[in-house]
Design brief:
This protein has about 500 residues and is of the alpha/beta class. It has 22 helices and nine strands.
């Protein structure tokens, strides 16, 4: 979603960036900090804050202030996620170029002349912005077909549908219903029956996301945008037990498919092909339960020769080998295997999808925070020759493998080891407590080797409770209090980042 902020216009982008930043901070943020983070001058920040405040003033139903300003302290978002999403929606709804993109997705086409007249733009301005939009859509695999003043969205139909769900969910998070000509209650009724009739646990978020999926499928079908027959002919690079396991999850000859298709045919007049696509899409998001015998087959208690292992078994063996001393619970094994199967089904349907259905950019997150984890996942699939001739699908599956891997090892384990020497003038028990207090907040993000002694004094950072500590000039020393404070942790964090930047 955020990739389109620039397309919506610089002014709106500034407003949205400020709103999101304040929402995530949950505190008063000085203008100086906002300026440094968002690269905005003081005047632009104040202008955006005023624009956000004016929008809120138009909401007569607001009973408490959502945006606060305090002299000397800065600005604060004082609402909850629902408040944030409502304000976001209101800001976007007023923006003509958000309306352009929304119309294109909901109706599959726009008329340039009509849009220009409706929003008092010149045709040349609108055509220029359409070209900008096409450039933003290109990395997603989409193009815009232009003919006689009309602009249509072109691309793989399954990927278009996936993008629509992700886009609208990221924008509305279920608090609003963008599909005006489809019954929300009927979609929810079918979604709820799908879970309950098949004894599948679900929560409110899963239910709402499923209604979005159903709505997008029905909408596209009504517009004549149908799924190609070959899309349903799944051909994953699997054999033997792996293929049997995959087919168990995708077999339409089951009561779960029969019940779903009857509901969709009766209420939305979908054909069998569309029902099957809907079934496969929903199955790619389900948490399955595997019989204990089947689970033990994929997580054997004893080492087995590689020649006797299937592709998925080899992948799991490689993923679990660094964690042999750890006991992986049966429920966690269920999730790991399920994540990989869902990944295979997802890439078969949609190819590489860097965003989750909730609109979060998984690929960007891994690249920024755990690049080695993503690299290891891609290398593992390359070694096993999974999707050997389809790099896009292999990269897409690697995201799921990386996710499954985090259930076995902390993702930080794949990152550079940072060796930290801890010196204290405290009793041994208190030193252990300090060590734990330091490790706990950072262990999810950094691969720390924290101890009181290193051979040949080979370490990257020293933390000490005493000013007597001496190291070489090249090794930074962080002095902390015996009762570790938040400023101590912030100083350690800055020092760790400094080590990584070297």
């Amino acid at each position: 979603m955020e990739r389109f902020y620039t397309f919506f216009g610089s002014s709106l982008k500034k407003d949205l960036d400020l709103l999101r930043f304040l929402y995530l901070q949950k505190r008063f943020v000085p203008i100086e900090e906002i300026s440094a983070t968002l690269a905005l001058d003081r005047r632009s920040i104040q202008k955006s804050f005023i624009a956000l405040t004016k929008q809120l003033e138009q909401n007569a139903e607001e009973k408490h202030p959502i945006l606060l300003a305090k002299h000397g302290a800065g600005y604060k978002f004082n609402g909850n996620k629902t408040d944030y999403k409502h304000l976001l929606r209101q800001l976007l709804a007023k923006n003509p170029f958000f309306q352009l993109l929304e119309t294109l997705l909901l109706h599959n086409e726009i008329n340039v002349v009509q849009f220009a007249n409706d929003y008092f733009f010149s045709e040349s301005t609108v055509r220029k912005r359409v070209n900008e939009l096409e450039n933003l859509l290109a990395p997603l695999g989409f193009t815009l077909k232009k003919s006689k003043g009309n602009v249509q969205l072109n691309g793989d139909e399954a990927r278009i549908r996936y993008f629509m769900v992700a886009f609208f969910w990221r924008t509305f998070s279920g608090v609003d219903w963008p599909f005006n000509h489809l019954s929300q209650s009927k979609c929810e009724e079918i979604a709820r029956a799908f879970y309950r009739n098949n004894h599948i646990p679900f929560n409110t978020i899963e239910l709402k996301q499923t209604t979005y999926i159903l709505a997008v499928i029905c909408l596209r079908f009504r517009q004549g945008q149908t799924i190609a027959e070959e899309k349903l002919q799944l051909q994953p690079p699997l054999k033997g037990l792996d293929l049997t396991l995959f087919q168990q999850s995708t077999n339409p000859e089951t009561p779960i498919f029969t019940q779903l298709s009857q509901e969709l045919m009766t209420h939305f007049f979908l054909n069998e092909k569309e029902c099957q696509f809907c079934f496969l899409w929903l199955m790619s998001n389900l948490e399955r339960t595997f019989p204990e015998e089947q689970l033990n087959c994929y997580f054997p208690s004893k080492k087995t020769s590689d020649q006797q292992l299937t592709t998925i078994q080899k992948a799991l063996a490689s993923m679990t080998s660094p964690a042999e001393k750890m006991v992986i619970s049966q429920p966690r094994k269920q999730v790991i295997l399920n994540t990989i199967l869902n990944g295979i089904l997802s890439v078969e349907l949609f190819g590489e999808t860097v965003h989750t259905l909730a609109g979060y950019n998984t690929a960007q997150f891994l690249t920024e925070h755990f690049p080695n984890l993503q690299l290891h996942s891609e290398q593992l699939l390359a070694y096993l020759k999974v999707y050997h001739e389809d790099l896009e699908k292999r990269k897409g599956l690697a995201l799921y493998v990386a996710t499954a891997w985090t259930l076995i090892l902390p993702p930080a384990r794949f990152q550079q080891v940072i060796r930290i020497k801890l010196e204290t003038d405290l009793p041994f028990a208190l030193s252990l407590a300090i060590k734990e207090l330091i490790q706990t907040p950072f262990q999810g993000f950094y691969n720390l080797d924290l101890r009181d002694h290193f051979e040949d004094d080979d370490y990257d950072l020293c933390i000490s409770t005493s000013p007597l500590t001496a190291t070489s000039a090249e090794i930074p020393v962080i002095l902390i209090n015996a009762q570790i404070t938040l400023p101590d942790l912030l100083a350690i964090h800055q020092a760790i980042e400094g080590v990584l930047r070297k």
